[in-house]
Amino acid sequence: MIKPYKPWLIALGVLLLLIITNPSISAFKAFRGRDSYSGLKRPLNLFVASVYKEHSKKFIGFFGNFIDISNNPEVLTTPVVADTIKHDSTVYDTSYHWKPPVTDSVK
Length: 107
What we know:
By secondary structure, the chain is an alpha+beta fold. The chain is 25% helix and 20% strand. The longest helix has 14 residues, at 7-20. The N and C termini lie far apart (73 Å). 6% of the residues are buried.
């Protein structure tokens, strides 16, 4: 009989995964497409996630990804426009099956 995993072992594995995938300041620099570290800061490093700052924008980094968490009023007050995708109303007949042309290749 196989013993079930202990909950603390699973929690330790998840914690270890978060620590390993916590992105570095050089990964943040590459994410922002910068050549230098000027203006880039990591004000908070929690080992499982980090907060990064570039001038007035703030990002949180975890699992190797970055999410913008700055309070940009322009983004917050932009109205959401419903259904901005142009839809094609053309209906195509899919019942037609292509048949190769018959050629007289044997003489």
